[in-house]
Structure formats: C-alpha cells, structure tokens
What we know:
The complex is a heterodimer. By secondary structure, chain A is mainly alpha-helical. Chain A is built from eleven helices and no strands. Chain A has helices spanning about 1-20, 25-30, 35-55, 60-80, 90-110, 115-125, 140-155, 160-170, 175-180, 185-205, 210-215. In chain A, α4 (about 60-80) crosses α5 and α7 crosses α10. The model of chain A has no long low-confidence stretch (mean pLDDT about 90). By secondary structure, chain B is mainly α. Chain B has one domain (about 5-75). In chain B, about 75% of the residues lie in helices and about 0% in strands. Chain B is built from four helices and no strands. The longest helix of chain B is centred in the middle third of the chain and has 17 residues, at about 25-40. The chains are: A mainly alpha, B mainly alpha. Chains A and B meet through α3, α5, α6, α7 and α8 of A and α1, α2 and α4 of B.
Amino acid sequence: MRAGFWMAVRPLLAKFHRMVAGEINWVEALQAADNAAVLGELRAILLNGLRISLRDRHEVSEAHLEDFAQEALLKILERLNQFSGRSKFTTWAHSIAINTAFTELRRKRWRDVSLDALLADGRELNEPATMADDTFGDDQERVRLVAVLRKAIAEKLSDKQRAAIAGSLEGLPFDQIVGLLGTNRNAAYKLVHDARRALKQHLMDAGISLETIRTTFAE
Amino acid sequence: MKPLTKQQLVGLINSVDATRDQELNCADCQNFAAEFAERQLVGLPLNEALARVEQHLVICPECREELLALKKILETSG
C-alpha cells in the first residue's frame, strides 16, 4: 500500500518542483478542473511572502496573514487572464498579495480620519509652523526654496488640492483621500496631478531650477 | 497639522520635481510592478514603460512601499 501511495504522489511532487522552478504554466494549472493542490501550493507561497514582507509589523497576526493570502488568491484567480508573462508568475502573484495586505492595513490605520480634519490639515499646510523655512538648514537658496513652495501652495492650490497633498504627506491612503473628498480615483488623480504641475510651474517661474532641487535633495 | 519632517518635505519637493504631463496611475504601476522588481534586482535596463513606473514611484509613497516589500520577498526567497 505504501508503494502504491508513493507511485500516486510522485508525479504530483515532480509537478510542484517543476512549477516552483518556473517550468510549469501556473495559469494553465490554476484553470484546470482539479486545481485544489495547485491552489494550496500557491497559497503557501503567498503566505510565505507575506510573512517576509510584514515581519516587522507587529500588529499583524498569523490569522491576518492567512486572510490576506486567501483574499489575494481570489483576486489572482479573477485576474489570471491579465498575467502577461513578462515576469515570473509567482512574482506577479506576490505583487497582488502585497497590494491586498497593505491596502487593508492602511485602511484600518486611517479609518477614523474625517473630512474636516483633512481640510484643516490642508489649510495649515502652508503655515510656517508646518513648513519651516529652515527645514533644510539656513542656506539662503534652501530657505528660499521652502518659502517659494509655501507661497505657491497658498496661492496656486485649491482647498481640496491642499487637503489631498496634506493627507498624502501624512500617509493617508489615496483611496481614503478619494472617499473623504467625495470624488473618484480619476478625478482625484487629476486634482493632485494638476496641483503638482502648478507647484512645479511656480518654482520654475520663481527661477528655482530643477537642477537646484535635485542637487539640494540628492544628499 | 504636525510640522513636516525633512523627509516629508523632501518627498513633496521630489514629487513636484518628478511631475510629468503623462503619468501612470497606481493600477498601471501595479501591472508593471513584478517585471520592474525582477529587472531592478538583476540590474537589467528599464524600457520606456518601466521608466514611467520609476517616475510613478517618486510621486506615490504607497506604490513605493509595496515595491520595496516585493523586492524584499524576491531578495529573501532568491
């Protein structure tokens, strides 16, 4: 009976080894009717990746990791036709698992932030108390750069743009900023992109070269 | 709002500096993240699409955080 068991299991093990080595088509294997073992293998790989990437996050338990891996597995199955083959399948799968986990952790961390608080932070963004002239020391060019930036934030941006940038600087997830501002992702992207463009133009108009910025902050 | 740290202000100024007329969004960035991470780890050159990922990473702390996590997995698991 033992010999029969190994006879049955050996091809399966060989299949997993080839799969891990990248010799088997994961997409095909996952789309097969008898995909339970392959799903289990992929789930274990994702779980291991999540343990590595989140090992410094002490608030994350093993149960959280298992939930993230399971949720990611469902997303991967939904998106199998989006896998382009430009990377290893497992790297692509890990990228989805990481996005799933980090999105949820950010949502939990920032769930209590209100629109009023976000707008208040936006109003304070260009205050000297928030953005001090001497943040980078008392070098004249650096002090001027911060002062010009503060002026641009005050004069060139709308309340919503200031709020979105303030939220982003504080680490608020983009999806949450979108929700608080009562807009959609595309509109919020445009809002922030337009804000950055306006600030960039203002810095250039004030004679602050991009080269100065790069050399100042490359340190 | 708490006073911005030097690191936060550098992040803001870098994101302004990196602003381009045409940019990827986070979903686009995620589509390329696996390929980008693999190529970066072995030092392969980036094509035009992947160069736009690099630009997005300057302006987006969330995608940057996720890419670092992905690279950590690849480095650890070989």
